[in-house]
Automatic annotation (TrEMBL):
Cofactor(s) needed for function: [4Fe-4S] cluster
InterPro entries per the UniProt record, alphabetical: Aldolase_TIM (IPR013785), Elp3/MiaA/NifB-like_rSAM (IPR006638), GTPase_Obg (IPR040084), rSAM (IPR007197), rSAM_sf (IPR058240)
Statement: the UniProt record of this protein carries the keyword Metal-binding: yes
Stored CDD domains: Radical_SAM
Membrane-crossing segments per the record: none
One Pfam family named in its UniProt record: Radical_SAM
Naturally occurring in which organism (per UniProt): Candidatus Caldatribacterium saccharofermentans
Location of region: Disordered: 252-272
UniProt protein name: Radical SAM protein
GO MF term set: 4 iron, 4 sulfur cluster binding; catalytic activity; metal ion binding
UniProtKB keywords: 4Fe-4S, Iron, Iron-sulfur, Metal-binding, S-adenosyl-L-methionine
Span of domain Radical SAM core: 13-250
Length: 272
């Protein structure tokens, strides 16, 4: 059980040495993205529940802190086998992580869809230093095709959720856009997406694409040149293979940076 809750540290392309925190059993999410590199969603749920025992997660964090004494990770990252904000005790676990790792950056990787429906999350996220949500579509039709959401979740609610996140979270937001060739890369879709991004005002826009086996085998990555062109159009950057992790001083009170080696993509879909 504890191995399910806390994993790593892994070397992340964006975050450096990152201790992962997983709050849900494989594979529990309110989306079933065609590109998910963790596999198809087995439990498509939009219910907040105590999916993994809260004390097991907190105990695993304490054990990890002891194990890593003298070699602390750069970040403690809530990610894992599905959507972490679905956990009913997410806020309590995040507070515990803050206490157990007071100096490390606390990062949340989320699909960003639940802040409008569960407004308590807007308080629960305040202990984080950095939030990395996703937005892959410019329209409802493409949202349905690429993210295959729980039937009760609309694209308008996803946008409202991200807008509330921006309003209420003053620290860094790095918004991730996953590009699937032939699905969300049409000019009119990208234009709609760019309009939403201008409204949402993330601190950074990160373009991502496939580098592992997707849930749907027909999913194709665009060429590097095409991805670079889309990143330019959207005002973002392609997630680099080598990166200097840099979280702004207002997020943490001090700026930190550290060059890291290429590593597996950090993703809310996969603990690695
Ligand atoms: S990519 Fe993330 S949001 Fe999409 S199905 Fe996988 S875990 Fe859920």
């Amino acid at each position: 059980m504890r191995k399910q809750c806390v994993f790593g540290p892994i070397l992340s392309r964006r975050l450096g040495s990152s201790l992962g925190v997983n709050l849900v059993p494989y594979k529990t999410c309110n989306l079933d993205c065609v590109y998910c590199e963790c596999g198809a969603t087995l439990n498509l749920s939009i219910e907040r529940r105590e999916y993994l025992p809260t004390m097991a997660v907190i105990d695993a964090l304490q054990e990890a802190a002891l194990r890593l004494r003298g070699y602390p990770p750069f970040c403690v990252t809530f990610a894992g086998w599905g959507e972490p904000t679905l956990h009913a005790q997410f806020g309590r676990i995040a507070e515990a992580a803050r206490r157990i790792f007071p100096k490390e950056h606390l990062v949340l990787i989320t699909n960003g869809t639940l802040f409008a429906r569960f407004r308590e999350l807007l308080e629960e996220i305040q202990v984080f230093d950095l939030i990395i949500p996703s937005l892959d579509a410019g329209t409802e039709a493409v949202f349905q095709r690429i993210n295959r959401p729980h039937p009760s979740l609309s694209f308008a609610e996803h946008l409202e959720s991200l807008a509330l996140l921006r309003q209420r979270f003053a620290k860094d937001i790095w918004l991730e856009v996953f590009i699937v060739e032939g699905l969300n890369d049409a000019p009119e879709e990208l234009l709609a997406l760019r309009t939403h991004l201008a409204h949402l005002r993330p601190n950074r826009i990160h373009l991502n694409t496939l580098d592992r086996r997707p849930t749907c085998t027909w999913v194709q990555a665009p060429s590097r040149e095409r991805l670079e062109a889309i990143a330019h159009f959207l005002g973002g950057e392609v997630i680099p293979s080598f990166h200097v992790a840099r979280i702004s001083p207002q997020a943490t009170g001090h700026e930190l940076s550290g060059e890291q080696q290429c590593a597996p993509r950090e993703c809310h879909s996969t603990p690695r």
